[in-house]
């Protein structure tokens, strides 16, 4: 109730200063389909059974917006691009039929995005009652054009999303104009609206202050402000008022990007192309590898470790800022980071953690740090986008073929290893996560770019191994994040994504232990793909899931790899007790064999304070030792 009142309030506020906006609401069916049942509710409960209970609230907010002077209201129904059965499709028909009388006198836009619509869904959405207009993503949903060609209701507006709302590349205006002119022939000029493919929330805001990007590269880009100019230019062109100078500049930029030598590296392309002839698996199976690794590492049962990062203090961030601003010498910076790593290693030894990390004090972001050292990447000063909640990130821009000019992490990892006799993990970000958390070039398939990044990470893995690092963690936090919405497209993605990971470590010795980490996600439907990654140890979020993931990873016993389900939630300042962590470990042992179980937090400790980290890790290690003692007694 509070949220819908806020929508009305925001509309009124904009109108009071002379701005006539289109209020945007999550559509009623998508609202339910994207919701989760409350804790304790039976799995068999259908959220869609609540549709008739929430429709009166939608009628109320529509009435308030209408009374406030709204002419258009947008209902986002993103779930329309998913695989929906006839029952779920019927709920869309039912919901908008029930709302029809409330919508009378208003223009209603139902917006879809991120994929093509299935043909049956297209028939349903184009027949919705009370709906004035339908929006389609014609960038990621290019096949939808064929459905539109097969017929579109003449009485409705078509919002053609030809400007990419999820990436930062300048639109090919000539190609988009051809598409729009074809659509104009189907729906008529008066019913065609030029639009972005989705909300511009996913792009950076404006290029006006990007002073460090060179002129050529900037000409290839369009942030949100520039995309609005593209929408306007295309709309005018469709109406016969084409801005020839604007179109010419765009054509020149497109040609520049296509022919620029900075984009293409023939050697990289050849190496990436050659990868398709093999599946790049390690020769020995994982059970035998773990035995060989244990002989070398001699770890205790239930080995303890952390995921990688340690707290990024204000002093540490200030240090990196001053170094980037040339306010200190490289020698001063390196010495300061060495001192920080030394403190982190000493702390872990005092806590008696079994497998250590160097804490990553030299890193700003797990993707940006690597992108800064790889060719084919560019970086913005102010290209922030919302990640989740209030957290924002500044994604790198992958504009060309990717390669690794020199080692990226070997210096810091070997320095850390020299400070201890315990195993030190080399910490890397995996190719698929770098891909999914960057603005990726759109002039070649994503898998080609992923393979190029994989080759660069492979070079780093092999250099770490040669430098004496016996455990290497290659994080694939965003593996599932790139999973297509349509089931028919998921197997293809998972095949090349998993292959990319295997490429990174296929040549290491059997005694080198490869870890990977995956963040908060639902792994049930991709467990076999995770197993196919062939990592020696997989660490995952678990504490927020109340051990629900353990039943899924029970299948990991058949696979034989080590598994580290997080024993406490690092996104909370709350410090778990030894008893609480022990209880979690015992629950894990009810599903997983002790020989494959690792004890670790849910994720990296970057966002936490040392006052939270020290006692939490103290309790974690104490819990692992307690359970080890209990297991020894029971044997």
TrEMBL record:
Pfam families per the UniProt record, alphabetical: Meth_synt_1, Meth_synt_2
InterPro entries assigned: Cbl-indep_Met_Synth_N, Cobalamin-indep_Met_synthase, Met_Synth_C/arc, UROD/MetE-like_sf
Enzyme class: transferase
Pathway annotation: Amino-acid biosynthesis; L-methionine biosynthesis via de novo pathway; L-methionine from L-homocysteine (MetE route): step 1/1
Residues of the Cobalamin-independent methionine synthase MetE N-terminal domain: 4-185
Record carries keyword Amino-acid biosynthesis: yes
Cobalamin-independent methionine synthase MetE C-terminal/archaeal domain segment(s): 302-625
Co-factor requirement: Zn(2+)
One annotated GO biological process: methylation
UniProt GO MF annotations: 5-methyltetrahydropteroyltriglutamate-homocysteine S-methyltransferase activity; zinc ion binding
Keywords assigned by UniProt, alphabetized: Amino-acid biosynthesis, Metal-binding, Methionine biosynthesis, Methyltransferase, Transferase, Zinc
Gene3D superfamilies named in the record: 3.20.20.210
Statement: the UniProt record of this protein carries the keyword Nucleus: no
Catalytic activity: 5-methyltetrahydropteroyltri-L-glutamate + L-homocysteine = tetrahydropteroyltri-L-glutamate + L-methionine
Family designation: Belongs to the vitamin-B12 independent methionine synthase family.
UniProt protein name: 5-methyltetrahydropteroyltriglutamate--homocysteine S-methyltransferase
Protein source organism: Olea europaea subsp. europaea
């Amino acid at each position: 109730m509070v949220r819908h009142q806020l929508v009305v309030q925001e509309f009124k506020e904009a109108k009071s200063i002379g701005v006539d906006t289109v209020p945007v609401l999550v559509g009623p069916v998508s609202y339910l389909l994207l919701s989760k049942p409350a804790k304790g509710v039976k799995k068999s409960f259908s959220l869609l059974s609540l549709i008739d209970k929430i429709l009166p609230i939608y009628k109320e907010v529509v009435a308030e917006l209408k009374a406030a002077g709204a002419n258009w209201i947008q209902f986002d129904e993103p779930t329309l691009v998913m695989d929906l059965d006839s029952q779920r499709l019927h709920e869309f028909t039912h919901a908008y039929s029930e709302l029809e009388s409330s919508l009378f006198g208003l223009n209603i836009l139902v917006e879809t995005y991120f994929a093509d619509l299935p043909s049956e869904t297209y028939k349903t959405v184009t027949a919705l009652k009370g709906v004035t207009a339908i929006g389609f993503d014609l960038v990621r949903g290019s096949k939808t054009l064929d459905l539109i060609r097969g017929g579109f209701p003449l009485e409705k507006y078509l919002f053609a999303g030809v400007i990419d709302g999820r990436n930062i590349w300048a639109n090919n205006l000539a190609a988009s104009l051809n598409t729009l002119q074809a659509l104009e022939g189907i729906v008529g000029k008066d019913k065609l609206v030029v639009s972005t493919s989705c909300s511009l929330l996913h792009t950076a805001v404006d290029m006006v202050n990007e002073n460090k990007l060179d002129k050529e590269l900037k000409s290839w880009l369009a942030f949100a402000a520039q995309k609005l100019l593209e929408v306007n230019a295309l709309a005018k062109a469709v109406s016969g008022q084409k801005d020839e100078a604007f179109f010419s500049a765009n054509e020149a930029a497109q040609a520049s990007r296509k022919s620029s030598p900075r984009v293409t590296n023939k050697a990289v392309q050849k190496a990436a192309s050659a990868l398709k002839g093999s599946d790049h698996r390690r020769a020995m199976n994982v059970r035998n590898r773990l035995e060989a690794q244990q002989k070398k590492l001699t770890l205790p049962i239930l080995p303890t470790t952390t995921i990688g990062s340690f707290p990024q203090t204000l002093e540490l961030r200030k240090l990196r800022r001053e170094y980037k601003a040339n306010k200190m010498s490289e020698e001063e910076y390196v010495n300061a980071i060495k001192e920080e790593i030394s403190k982190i290693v000493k702390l872990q030894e005092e806590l008696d953690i079994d497998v250590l990390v160097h804490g990553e004090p030299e890193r700003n972001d797990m993707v940006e740090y690597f992108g800064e050292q790889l060719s084919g990447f560019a970086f913005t000063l102010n290209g922030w986008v919302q990640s989740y909640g209030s957290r924002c990130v500044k994604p790198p821009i992958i504009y060309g073929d990717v390669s690794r000019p020199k080692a990226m992490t070997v210096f810091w990892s070997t320095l850390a290893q020299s400070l201890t006799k315990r195993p030190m993990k080399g910490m890397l970000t995996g190719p698929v996560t770098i891909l999914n958390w960057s603005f990726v070039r759109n002039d070649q398939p994503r898998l080609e770019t992923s393979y190029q990044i994989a080759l660069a990470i492979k070079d780093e893995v092999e250099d770490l191994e040669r430098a004496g690092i016996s455990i290497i963690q290659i994080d694939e936090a965003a593996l599932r994040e790139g999973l297509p919405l349509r089931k028919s497209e998921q197997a293809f993605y998972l095949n090349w994504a998993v292959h990319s990971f295997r490429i990174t470590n296929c040549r290491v010795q059997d005694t080198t232990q490869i870890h990977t980490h995956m963040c908060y996600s639902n792994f049930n439907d991709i467990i076999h793909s995770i197993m196919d990654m062939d990592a020696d140890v997989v660490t995952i979020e678990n504490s927020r899931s109340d051990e629900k993931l353990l039943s899924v990873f029970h299948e990991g016993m058949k696979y034989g790899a080590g598994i580290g389900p997080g024993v406490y939630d690092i996104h909370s300042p709350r410090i778990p007790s030894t008893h609480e962590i022990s209880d979690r470990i015992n629950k894990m042992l009810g599903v997983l064999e002790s020989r494959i179980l690792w004890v670790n937090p849910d994720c990296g400790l970057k966002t936490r304070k040392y006052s939270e980290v020290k006692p939490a890790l103290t309790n974690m290690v104490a819990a692992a030792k307690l359970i080890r003692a209990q297991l020894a007694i029971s044997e």
